[in-house]
Design brief:
about 325 residues; alpha+beta; 3-stranded antiparallel sheet
Length: about 325
């Protein structure tokens, strides 16, 4: 009898221990517990720590109250100015009402994800390309309001929505690059023109100051020569101005000699002389070619007296040799 009582007590203790183990629940610090008794929501939400539920009668569902970071898949859309873009985003939200997150929606994570995708497509169609690229803060605020309005009834609060990336077609990228290059070139030309205007004003002022002192221009010329000659990689051709010679000549003369010189009488202008006719040069005589002389014969010439029938008077005299013309 005693043995049966001991066995029954041990069995009861074991059953009680199993019951307590099944009824005991632990809720973490970042969680909240929602208790459903026979399918009905009990008032109040179980806080963090140790709690008890009736096994088989009550059911405890834990809801994470931390901020959830959820990436929004990239969505293809056409902007208001008819440009095809691909935009993805990221959303930050948390549960503020655990009971509504369990009762009002089947899966609040999936619901927030689908709402973010549809809102992102809607915001793409209402915006221009320039707004997507440069005015993202305004788009982020509008996207947050669009997602937060239905999520309030689910016990979910949207903390922040950020557009992460905007993908453009390659043709649009090249067009934007050309536009940016043209804008940069325009600004560079405007800056160069402004610099030229300022430089011209300064040069005009410098020329006005140098006009009063001619020696300043010569000194500036010498400074330029020194600056160019310091490189030693080019040949410098320097024209020597006559004004510099006059300046040096005046500097060498004593001041008394300059004041003692009498004024020269002004001479009347002379009449221009009549031009003389050019004398025509006589052509030089051409030298005549020298004729070759026959070689002298070694045979003795017959005397006129030795030839029969020929008188001495009829014998012709030898021709006189002409002297060659001297070359001029």
């Amino acid at each position: 009898m005693v043995q049966e009582l001991v066995i029954a007590a041990v069995a009861g203790a074991s059953a009680g221990a199993l019951y307590l183990m099944a009824a005991a629940k632990i809720v973490k610090q970042y969680e909240r517990g929602v208790v459903l008794r026979l399918g009905r929501l009990r008032e109040g939400v179980r806080g963090p720590g140790f709690t008890m539920v009736l096994p088989g009668v009550e059911r405890l569902r834990k809801v994470n109250m931390q901020i959830v970071t959820m990436p929004v898949p990239a969505q293809d859309g056409i902007t208001r100015d008819n440009v095809t873009v691909r935009v993805d985003a990221v959303i930050y939200f948390k549960v503020v009402d655990a009971a509504s997150a369990v009762i009002q929606v089947e899966d609040y994570r999936f619901a927030v994800s689908q709402m973010a995708q549809t809102s992102l497509r809607s915001i793409i169609g209402k915006s221009d390309l320039d707004d997507l690229l440069s005015n993202r803060e305004k788009l982020n605020q509008g996207l947050e309001l669009m997602i937060d309005s239905p999520a309030v009834g689910w016990g979910v609060q949207i903390d922040r929505v950020e557009i992460k990336d905007v993908s453009l077609p390659e043709t649009m990228k090249r067009s934007m690059a050309r536009q940016a290059e043209a804008d940069r070139e325009r600004r560079a030309r405007v800056i160069n023109a402004d610099a030229e205007l300022q430089a011209s004003k300064k040069l005009a002022e410098a020329a006005k100051e140098m006009s009063s002192q001619p020696a300043a221009l010569q000194l500036r010329l010498l400074q330029t020569v020194v600056a160019v000659a310091a490189e030693k990689n080019s040949t410098l051709v320097l024209p020597f101005p006559v004004e510099l010679l006059r300046f040096l000549e005046r500097a060498q003369q004593p001041p008394q000699q300059l004041t003692a010189q009498p004024q020269q009488a002004v001479q009347p202008p002379q009449q221009p002389a009549q031009p003389q006719r050019p004398v025509q040069a006589q052509p030089r005589p051409r030298p005549q070619p020298r004729r070759p002389q026959p070689p002298p014969s070694t045979a003795p010439a017959p005397s006129p007296t030795s030839m029969p029938g020929v008188s001495p008077a009829a014998t012709p005299a030898p021709p006189a040799r002409s002297k060659p013309l001297a070359r001029h």
